[in-house]
Amino acid sequence: DQQVKQNSPSLSVQEGRISILNCDYTNSMFDYFLWYKKYPAEGPTFLISISSIKDKNEDGRFTVFLNKSAKHLSLHIVPSQPGDSAVYFCAARYGGGGADGLTFGKGTHLIIQP
Amino acid sequence: EAGVAQSPRYKIIEKRQSVAFWCNPISGHATLYWYQQILGQGPKLLIQFQNNGVVDDSQLPKDRFSAERLKGVDSTLKIQPAKLEDSAVYLCASSPGTRETQYFGPGTRLLVL
Q: Which residues, given as ranges, of chain B have pLDDT below 50?
């Protein structure tokens, strides 16, 4: 049973426009959410995160929004650049305790068109 | 600062053979994770170490997979015997401590024939 879902396997956006990547989760015990970016033949790299006590976190061109009641988060990239073309993974972490392995979605392949 | 190092980068073996992967975390990072990423899926946690102790191995198939982190630094993940469904990328990650950002290595791509 997938606890973190990314329902769009791919997304194509024109350079300069806004990219919106979506993620849904089912487990209300998750208290921290992260986005990772992955290029081919490389490991995932951390992009941005948000705690469940917040509804928005911004870092440069990247903003993550969290809607706890809907168990939904989204990543906005404005403006989109060619180097943003990659696979984006949404991940979640349980609250409390020492075990903090991440639960990942399947990823969304973002393609930025010139 | 050097990142997480993994070797080998690629490995091809036949089913029922054994294989081992090595990970060197970022210097000073106390927490180390092994993830398995099957094609088309997101990474799935196999095991988490805090220094040289196991914090979580609930998703590790212990009949064939084993991992150790001697001296709380490098770690090895072993599969014995390998099955076709073990074909995946094995990612190692480290963090300064629990509940901190995890930094991933480039992964080892395993193909079991």
A: none
Contact at CB, B104 and A41, closer than 8 angstroms: no
Give the Cα separation of A27 and A4 in Å (integer).
Answer: 8
Distance between CA atoms of residues B29 and B20, nearest Å: 22
User: What integer pLDDT is reported at residue A22 of this predicted model?
Assistant: 98
Alpha carbon distance B89, B97 (integer Å): 24
Q: Please give the Cα distance from A6 to A99 (Å, whole number).
A: 24
pLDDT in tens, A49-104: 999 999 999 999 999 999 999 999 999 999 999 999 999 999 999 877 778 999 99
Q: Which of A38, A39, A40 is nearest to A91 (CA)?
A: A38
Pinpoint the alpha helices (H) of chain B.
Answer: none
Could you tell me which chain A residue has the CA closest to the CA of B59?
A101
Of A20, A19, A25, nearest to A6 by C-alpha is A25
